[in-house]
Design a protein that fits this description.
Layout (H helix, E strand, L loop, with lengths): L3 E8 L6 H9 L17 E6 L3 E7 L9 H16 L2 E7 L6 H13 L3 E6 L6 H12 L6 E4 L8 H8 L20 H16 L9 E9 L5 E9 L2 H8 L4 H18 L3 E9 L7 H6 L5
Parallel strand pairs: 1-3, 1-4, 4-5, 5-6, 8-9
Antiparallel strand pairs: 2-3, 7-8
Helix pairs in contact: 6-8
The structure holds guanosine-5'-diphosphate, magnesium ion and potassium ion.
């Protein structure tokens, strides 16, 4: 059998479990996960390489009405991605029937003319009867090439996605070397991990106005990787919250980030964090570029 390779986009409204699914499929923590919507800004790719195929998975930012330049960037990335991939996995929440955001995405999926699978996630917390009625409610909305109920959290049904997906993947070359899990530079991943920890630790106090830039990422002579990163926020009061009393919060964010990055890179790291106020950075082109949001 000849080798197959292709690109698969993962799309769905916030919190349906896209990042969790990507991680389940690739077996690695790459895309960042949190219970807050819109944590995924970059198009992060996970790569699955087997004897006979290679699938490049793209975590597509959610589609929504943009209010800032960053928002517009995310929408552009999403709609461009949808046209160029071989297959789209549209992820929906199996515990709820389609809402406005779901149907809005479906309208856009129809225009992309790329094959679409409906992946109904979180079946671990839904009854069979409910699941059947949800499937029913979705199936009238568009012609899905497959409807696959899964639990990304429990890795239940995820192998079926791959098996079905391969029917839509063309013959092609190996795009990435076998041990590649993501084509994002490690610097960007480290920044995403740190941003995840900020979001996780600060609840809703410092909402989406946080960006992380890795200023330097160097391997030292003793093998340790030394990372220096700046956390940007929009207000002085936010800076205070991120740093915390006697630096406690920043310390907490730092050690949680270090743990996660060490696990990912499989090596010891030395992490230094700074916090800076940059009002309105989300509307600043130069700033967006620095943070890796190239358009
Ligand atoms: P995203 O915004 O679509 O990327 O969603 P995330 O992957 O960040 O997941 C959002 C929330 O749903 C997190 O709290 C996940 O733990 C949870 N979640 C994801 N997949 C499942 C699943 O299969 N079952 C259950 N019960 N929860 C899930
Ligand atoms: Mg996500
Ligand atoms: K999320």
């Amino acid at each position: 059998m000849s080798f197959k390779s292709g690109f698969v986009s993962v799309i769905g409204r916030p919190n349906v479990g896209k990042s969790t699914l990507l991680n389940a499929l690739t077996g690695q923590k790459i895309a960042i996960m949190s219970d807050k919507p819109q944590t995924t800004r970059n198009t992060i790719r996970g790569v699955i390489t087997e004897e006979e195929y290679q699938l490049v998975l793209i975590d597509t930012p959610g589609i929504h009405k943009p209010k800032t330049k960053l928002g517009q960037y995310m929408v552009n990335v999403a709609s461009e991605t949808m046209k160029e991939v071989d297959l789209i996995l549209f992820i929906a929440d199996a515990t709820e029937s389609a809402g406005n955001l779901d149907t809005g995405i479906i309208e856009q999926l129809k225009q992309a003319k790329t094959p679409v699978f409906l992946i109904l996630n979180k079946v671990d917390i839904v009854s069979k009867d409910k699941l059947l009625s949800i499937i029913e409610s979705y199936s009238g909305l568009m012609d899905f090439k497959a409807v696959i109920p899964v639990s990304a959290l429990k890795k239940d049904g995820t192998a079926i996605i791959i098996k079905e997906a391969l029917q839509y993947i063309p013959e092609g070359p190996r795009f990435f070397s076998e041990d590649t899990l993501t084509d994002q530079p490690e610097k960007v991943i480290a920044a995403e991990m740190i941003r995840e920890k900020v979001l996780l630790n600060l609840e809703d106090e410092v909402p989406h106005g946080v960006g992380v830039e890795v200023m330097s990422f160097k391997e030292r002579e003793d093998g340790l990787i030394s990372i220096q990163a700046t956390i940007y926020c929009e207000k002085n009061s936010h800076k205070g919250i991120i740093i915390g009393k006697q630096g406690q919060m920043l310390k907490k964010i730092g050690s949680a980030s270090r743990y996660e990055i060490e696990r990912l890179l499989d090596t010891k790291i030395f992490l230094e964090l700074w916090v800076k106020v940059k009002p309105d950075w989300r509307n600043n082109d130069g700033m967006l570029k620095n943070l890796g949001y190239q358009s």
